[in-house]
Amino acid sequence: MNKFESMNRAELTERFRRTVAFKNYVARPKIRFEHTIDEARIRRELAERNQLRAEAKLPPVSFDEELNRLRATFESARSGEFYALAYEMICEVCGKPNKHDFSSVSDVAWFFSSKQNLIRDMLVQQIRDQTTAGQQSS
In angstroms, rounded to a whole number, what is the distance separating the alpha carbons of residues 30 and 123? Predict the structure, then answer.
């Protein structure tokens, strides 16, 4: 994998953009990284659920507790989606790593985290580009 360490950021970005994993993500993302929790919608739905719970003589569900639970679930799913995507892209460009490619756990962490940061930046830029294109077409 050392031969890929010599690529500069622009070369690596271009290779990542050409991966099947990235093209598939852009075409059909499972979770978009720009998505956020819609607290107003959660509040409305929870009010309806609490009304049904009251009619059934059950205690109400706390908005803050439910929001925290949903936020944790959402962030966990979004993180899992990101790390799976990043791993696929890294393997496409650099080859599937094996334990003999690295001399320490720190080497593994540096290798992946530096590329994950670049992939995150690519996704953020992709979102900005799509948002800008959408605003210009309106």
Answer: 14
Of 94, 111, 92, 93, the residue nearest 102 (C-alpha): 111
Q: What gap in Å lies between CA 27 and CA 78, rounded to an integer?
A: 17
First to last CA, the chain: 45
pTM of the model: 0.71
| Residue where the block lists tokens 């978009």 | 32
pLDDT digits over 55-79, tens only? 999 999 998 998 899 888 888 888 8
Contacts of 27 (CB under 8 A, 6+ apart): none
Query: Beta-carbon neighbour count of residue 39 at 10 Å?
Result: 12
Q: Chain-centre distance of CA 75, in angstroms?
A: 8
Question: In this structure, what token pair is assigned to residue 138?
Answer: 């309106």
pLDDT per position as a tens digit, 79-102? 888 899 999 999 999 888 887 888
